[in-house]
Amino acid sequence: MSWAYQNPVRVQFGVGALDQVAPAIAGRPWALVTYDMDLFRALGQRIARQAGPPVTIVDDIQANPDFADLGGVCRRFAAAGRTGVVVALGGGSVIDAAKVLAAAGGDFAAVRAHLVDGTPLDAGRVLPVLAVPTTAGTGSEVTCWATVWDAAGGRKYSIAHPGLYPEAAIVDPALTLAAPHGLTLATGLDALSHALESLWNVNANPVSAQFAIAAAREVLDVLPRLLEQPGDVALRARQSQASLLAGLAFSNTKTALAHNISYDVTLRHGTAHGIACSFSLPQVMRWAIGRDPACDERLAAIFGPDLPAGADRLQRFLEDLGVPTDPAAHGLAPGEWVRLVDKAFAGERGRNFIGRRELAAE
After folding, report:
1. Do the Cβ atoms of 203 and 253 come closer than 8 Å?
2. What would the mean pLDDT of 177-194 be, rounded to a whole number?
3. β 129-133/168-171 pair status
4. pLDDT computed for residue 82 by the predictor
5. What is the pLDDT of residues 320-348, one digit of tens each?
6. Of 31, 87, 148, 232, whose CB is crowded by the most CB atoms within 10 A?
């Protein structure tokens, strides 16, 4: 057996870590990518007091960054002048948008051509990114890709480039305290999906698996309590660390079938990503059981030796959190569900799944 694991991101973790952003900027001209909200303005000002003012602030980032918006964002970013580093302060959409800006060199057409036609990115134009997540689920702070949507065309793309690994991930769990219940739930389940999807994955390796096992066990233990005690900083820290570990896992494997299923659910029905990629996890786990001894052993470290019972436990876990696992509850008629799963098996992430295609119709 041969394998490799690689992740170049320097991680700074802990309550108060936000104060490490300015030293990481290290005097370079910097741009802030964030949300247009009072909370994020205040956090940005806190960084600016230590690092000096940013060259520009991009604060009109939309959820699920889309072709329709990113062209204008890239033009405004380029018009601001020379930038040495991009600081992404926000959730997954902010970090993904920051990576697009870092790769585009002011020209979204270059990114679009890369996504649609496979045109190589100019590595010399990719700017360094400092990722400061304010949610606990995306894992984007330690991956080299970003999700880009084309809602008008009904497509989801993923930009990937080694230069898009953030230079540093600065993870301050206190920044997640403002996340409301729905966002805490969806992002927490996104982290769980990242962990499990990296296990039933053709690209799994012993290092990614250990990160994934630790992450999944932690989310299963912490998330229900965190939803009941959202102001508990210790629980926020545990969930943030679990999200980070899941990110370190799938940074090497990418995701698998449940994520491929989720994209159309989000595009067609507007379902939040973390819900769309998690409601199918019990069924996907059942399709994975028995396909690979190493995967079964790793799943047993999370759910115990009776894996079918473990899948039932996972289903109860989701439903107890208010996430139904019946596709119909997410707007999917039986025929549409079968077509969607068959399509997902054929997709890039679906091909990472260790299960067999014919199981989709069972």
Report:
1. yes
2. 98
3. parallel
4. 87
5. 999 999 999 999 999 999 999 999 998 88
6. 87
120-152 pLDDT, tens digit each = 888 888 999 999 999 999 999 999 999 998 989
pLDDT at position 361 is 42
SS3 of residue 3 by DSSP:
coil
How is 132-174 classified by DSSP, letter by letter? EESSSS--GGG-SEEEEEETTTTEEEEEE-GGGS-SEEEE-GG
Which residues make up the CATH 3.40.50.1970 domain(s) of the chain? Answer: 10-174
DSSP assignment string, 7-52: ---EEEESTTGGGGHHHHHTT--EEEE-BSSHHHHHHHHHHHHHH-
Write out the DSSP string of 169-212: EEE-GGGGTT--HHHHHHHHHHHHHHHHHHHSBTT--HHHHHHH
Q: Which fold has domain 181-361?
A: Dehydroquinate synthase-like, alpha domain (1.20.1090)
Residue 174: φ, ψ to 5°: -60, -25
Q: Note if the pTM is more than 0.90.
A: yes
Q: Does 3.40.50.1970 match the CATH number of domain 10-174?
A: yes
Q: Phi/psi of residue 189, each to 5°?
A: -75, -30
33 bridge partner residues: 58, 88
Contact 311, 326 (CB under 8 A): no
CA atoms within 13 A on the CB side of 353: 30
* Amino acid letter, 185: L
Determine the Cα–Cα distance for residues 51 and 115; give it in Å rounded to an integer.
Answer: 34
CA dist., res. 217 & res. 302, Å (int) = 6
Residue carrying structure tokens 């090497």: 252
